[in-house]
Predict the structure.
Amino acid sequence: DDTTLGPVIYGLSLGSSTTLVLQDPRSTDESKLEYTLEPGSMYALAGNYRYNWCHSTLPDNIDTRVSITAT
C-alpha cells in the first residue's frame, strides 16, 4: 500500500455483509485470516497488517456493499 496514506487505514463497511481476507504473502502456506464485516462494521489496519499483508474482500454481495476508507 501507499505509505503516504499514514500508519493506519480505517475501513467502514456499509450495505450488505462481506468477508475481509488478510494474507501474508511471505508465508509458505496458504493460511489466511477471514473476518465477517457486517453492515456498519469498522476496522483498522496498522503495523504488519497495514504494510506487509495483502487485504481484500470476497465478491459475496459486492453489488450492494459500499466501503469508505480513511487514514
